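Need tokens for this chain, all 344 residues.
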Amino acid sequence: MPTSNPTLSHYIKECYNKMHSVWLIFDEHGNIIVSGAMTERSLGYPISMLEGTDVMMIIKPEDRIRVRSIMDSLLAGEQDIIKSEIEMVNREGHLSMVGIQMFLVRSREGTMQICLAGMDISFYKDNQWSMEMMNKKLNILGSATRHDVLNSLTGLFGYLELAEVKNKDENVAKFIKKAKASAETIKKQIEFTRTYQELGSKKPSWINVRDVIRLSYAGLNEPRLPLNVDVDDVEVYADQMLEKVFFNIMENAQRHAEATEMSITFRRKGDEGEIVIEDDGKGVPENEKDFIFKRGYGKNTGFGLYLSREVLEITGMKIVENGAEGRGARFVITIPPNRFRTGQ
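Here are the structure tokens for all 344 residues:
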């Protein structure tokens, strides 16, 4: 152990026995010198059988090269602590997935030895696999259902068009118009489920704000609003659908706000960051500010700003609208500390 105090050594060993399901100390050749009590319970090997054994004998053959590489890296002083996941073989030949961290310790004689401390994560890995399979099945079900509904809607639109052409009754024409509007709403809601299904499906990453604004603006139907962008070279840690956030706000300004220009700026505010999106349109009425981010509220599908809020909340960002009615909309995205960076 890395201390010459016998009492402290005892406590450290006790802590490791309680905290880790596997812990071993072995020399540079992999020969086990010390093993913890929990190792015996987890793998089924008596301590007397493990000590003096090659550590590779209890590691799945496919993982041995990786463990050897970690040992070499530690001994060469390239890293202090290395974390990984390996499969270990118990006495009955069964495999357990173990999350490990390995680091160097110095013996009383001054020689460098390697400590492997690990937790059995098989239960979590099994649950993760089950969740992935469940999500896969739900995605397949959602895609198939969406495909069938959209096909049925195509047929419905066709019949309504025929009815509209052949109908001569003005009252019936009103009902046909309402039926087409309802079918169009259903279509938009079904298409939204495709977008929402993708939300959070990929791991968040660092995204350049200027680049994503450029992509969002280019995606507008005939973009005509002059756009002033002042965001330095900032990157934010966000979901891959961040582009949708800027697109939805820009589209609202262009379609509904009667705006003639828009600006997007970034600024630091203490430890946090803020992205401010402003236009010079008619703004949001005071009594609607608490509702515009709710699902279904709005003049088009009612999903755009709701989706924007959901995308941002995946990595802890918040969005509010605090503009003045008659002077333009003002959306403020607050970015938590360590979720933005510049000059990368």
